[in-house]
Specification:
mainly alpha
Length: 152
């Protein structure tokens, strides 16, 4: 007769390592997004009229992606992952939309149709897509804070 075997509960250290890995990968995708947009911004602003040109939008995307990367890396909270998801998904949607659809300028936004793929644009799209998926996984994995019962 053999002794009963018991399954050990997963160690908390392994879960923390996975969480840190997910946070690092999400932040890395957002850093690539930020870097590409920062690098390309001056070239896109050069031909734009003063004001909210495409280069300015690239700088805003870069700043938002860098901020989201820091938030996810340092906090890893639901809010940080939600912000990262918003930034990455909006960047991905914009690059794909303006690659395939010739939208005219509307409101403060310039016409940004560019029917080509080149290395930096593709790298940005891949990083934004991966960042959105990773941030979505992070958002799903983080727990909501328990609701407190109202005081009587």
């Amino acid at each position: 007769m053999s002794a009963p075997t018991s399954r050990a509960a997963p160690s908390r250290g392994r879960g923390r390592g996975r969480d840190l890995g997910l946070r690092a990968l999400t932040a890395a995708a957002l850093v690539v997004d930020a870097g590409v947009h920062l690098h390309l911004a001056p070239g896109y602003q050069a031909g734009s009229p003063p004001g909210l040109g495409q280069g300015t939008l690239f700088l805003l995307e870069s700043a938002a992606a860098a901020l989201a990367a820091l938030a996810v890396l340092l906090r890893g909270s639901r809010a940080a992952y939600a912000f990262a998801l918003l930034v990455a998904l909006s960047g991905f949607a914009a690059v794909v939309l303006y690659r395939y659809v010739d939208l005219p300028a509307f409101g403060p936004f310039p016409a940004m149709y560019e029917p080509v793929w080149y290395f930096e644009k593709a790298a940005s799209a891949v990083a934004e897509g991966a960042g959105a998926v990773l941030a979505g996984v992070g958002l799903a994995r983080t727990r909501r804070a328990p609701r407190r019962a109202p005081a009587r």
